[in-house]
Specification:
Radius of gyration: 18 Å
Number of strands: 0
Low-confidence stretches: none
Number of helices: 7
Strand content: under 5%
Shape: globular
Distance between the termini: 28 Å
Order of helices and strands: HHHHHHH
Helix content: over 70%
């Protein structure tokens, strides 16, 4: 078994635990337990960083981890966005802009799969966008608190949100260009 085929690694266990916390986070937001929800988001963010460090340092990278990690990020972004929009912390157009990008990229997968390619490797710009968004959402939730803390959090949260949107869509353009190049250069294998 190659190292890339491993399933039971410490980074994969951390990613699975992060995924298991998604419904907990959603319930906390829905129930108005904002401080606990912020704690879960902080833990998810820390665990995202930690699983990457462990995977690189101890050569525990795997195909499963390469799928789990971005899936957990996407799921946290989606659930956080929907719950914050439901609570009227962020506008619904933000949900449409960010989810629309992921729908666009998901539309590329069938053409890539027909040519033997899986999902495209994560690009640094996409990571930067995800990073900015994962900072924006807790800050925007914290912005609901009255006083100076809320005002500072609102300004910082929207700054990170705008940076995240820009990087997220710039990465989408790069992914589309890469996919178009692969599709044009590769014939569909005959059955």
């Amino acid at each position: 078994m190659s190292t890339q085929d491993r399933v039971w690694t410490v980074p994969n266990a951390i990613s699975m635990a992060r995924l298991a916390l998604v419904p907990v986070f959603a319930w906390l937001i829905a129930a108005g337990h904002d401080l606990a929800a912020l704690g879960v988001l902080a833990l998810a963010g820390f665990s995202d960083w930690l699983d990457g460090v462990i995977a690189r340092r101890f050569d525990q990278g795997s195909r499963l981890g390469a799928m789990l990690d971005p899936a957990a990020d996407r799921l946290y972004i989606l659930v956080t966005l929907v719950m914050l929009a439901w609570r009227e912390v962020v506008p619904w157009w933000l949900v449409v802009v960010l989810v629309g990008r992921d729908v666009l990229l998901a539309g590329l997968l069938p053409a890539l799969a027909r040519r033997g390619y899986g999902p495209l490797p994560v690009h640094f710009v996409g990571k930067a966008g995800t990073f900015a968004l994962l900072y924006a959402f807790p800050l925007l939730l914290l912005a609901q608190w009255p006083g100076a803390v809320g005002e500072v959090a609102r300004a910082a949260g929207w700054a990170f949100a705008w940076w995240g949107i820009a990087f997220y869509w710039l990465a989408a353009v790069l992914y589309v260009r890469q996919a178009v190049t692969l599709v044009r250069e590769t014939e569909v294998p005959s059955s």
